Each structure stands twice: as C-alpha cells, then as structure tokens.
Amino acid sequence: MDDSREIPNEEIQATPEQQAVVEEQTDRAEEVAEESALDMTDTPAESIPPEGEIASSCEEMRTPQAEGPEPTPESLPAVQAGEALVEMLDATDGQETAPAEPGESDAQPPQSQPAGPEPTEQAGPEQESSPTIESVIEAVLFATDEPLQESRLAGIVETTPKQVRDCVESLNARYEANHNAFRIEQIAGGYQMLTQPLYNPWLKKMLKVRSDNKLSPAAMETLAIIAYKQPIIRADIEAIRGVAVGEVIRSLMYKGLVKIAGRAEILGRPMLYGTTKKFLEVFGLNSIKDLPKAEDLKNPDRG
Prior knowledge:
47% of the residues lie in helices and 9% in strands. The protein is mainly alpha-helical. It has 3 domains: 16-64 and 74-93; 133-205, Winged helix-like DNA-binding domain superfamily/Winged helix DNA-binding domain (Arc Repressor Mutant, subunit A), CATH 1.10.10; 209-298, Winged helix-like DNA-binding domain superfamily/Winged helix DNA-binding domain (Arc Repressor Mutant, subunit A, Orthogonal Bundle), CATH 1.10.10.
C-alpha cells in the first residue's frame, strides 16, 4: 500500500507523528483484511453481501462528502483506515464464492398443497340400510287393503312361501315385544295387517261404517244361517227362519257377502248358497272353521 497517497484535500499535510500512526493503523488493517479474506473463503455463499451492496458501500466510502467540514489532521487516521477497508473489499470482489454443498442448490422446497378442506367421505344424510325380505313383506302388507295369499305375497317379494311364513312370525314377535297395536293376521286365506281388538272402542269412534255394510236383523239372521249351514238351499233357510228369505238373499249377494255355491242333487236342482271371501274379510276370519262355536254363543261367559 502506498503510504504517500494524497488526501483529497491537498491543502492539508500530515505531520511525521501522524504519518507514523497512519502506517501503524494501515498495517493492522492489512492483517485484519487477510484474516477476513480467510474467513470469507469458509463462509457460505448465502452470507456474502450482494455485489450491488458491496459496490454501493465502496462508492460511498470513496466519494468525498459534499457537505460538512473539511477533514482535519486529527481525522486523517480514520480516512486512511477507511481507504484500507475499501481496498480489502475490492480484493474480495474477485474471489470466487464458496461452492454450495451438494444437494443444497438442487433441493427445492416442498410444493404447498392448495388450500381447501381435506377430501372426506360424502357428507349428507346417513345412507339408509338396504331393504330386507322381512321389511319388504312388512311394507306390502302395510299398503294393501285386502288380504294377500301366501303364494301371491311370495311372488311379489320374489321369495319362497316358507320364508314368507318365517318373516311373518318374526314380524309378529317384534310387534309383540314392542307392544305395537297391530299384528299380521291370516284373513280369508291370506295375510293382512290389522289392529288388535283391544283398540276397537277408540277405532269405532273414528271410523264411519259404510251403509252397504250395515245389515238389518233379518239379514244378520239369514247370513248366520248360511255361514253355519253352507252350502244350503233357500228352502232350508226359510224352514229355519219361518219366513221368505228371497229378497234378503239377493241383498246379501249384492253386498258381496253371499254367493251361489252350486246346485243341490235333488229334485229340481235348487241353488246352493255359501259365504264369500269378503265375508271372511268383513268379520276378520281366516276360514269358516274360525266361526264361534254354537256352545260359545249360547254361553258367552265360558272360556
């Protein structure tokens, strides 16, 4: 380093004592520069200031301040030290930056996933369980307004008659356990869902009986004779009642409670009368065998 470098202000000259101090500080600055250069070779590239900042700092140090008092002899050592620092920075400009460790430059930060809710299962109402044979039978019997025969019910549900019977028994067991007001009963050779007799007093208050189902005492007597004595000819009915029953029989046939069951193998081949399937439905019977016994009607208090 040239110790005789001129100060920007040419009118000021340093004394010998000040020159000695400047030389001593210059030597120290050179030692510091060497140590710094060694440290910077070991410093990662990321810690070295950008070249633009270094050049800007050098330019500021080299350019004399336009404002402010002119440098005095006491400020010369600081000026010399600043110049030494500028030279040190210039020396580091030409040095190559320390190579980055393998893998650091190639490593890329993990790509961030787009913000949003994590994919989850479809929300909404809970999916209903798949219908079973038992539940399908229950739905069909609940919707029908007439008894369904076992074979027909099995065809609708696409199962066997035995499985229909098993499902009906299972449903009735569940209704009884849950104290439901209805059961599946066998009516007119088929199955139908009916309320229990226990609730008849309340149901009678709600239901309006259709006029075509209202029977006069004469019609009830005639229908009872036909039900218990079928197949029977009209002459036998009139013999029991003691009056003509032709008009009553026609009324019962119109209501669908009585039908012609055939002809008797006697003189004149008179017509035979019997009850219909609707008769079983109206009176809640599965078959004619379920009619009350004559003894029970005479003595209703007996079990």
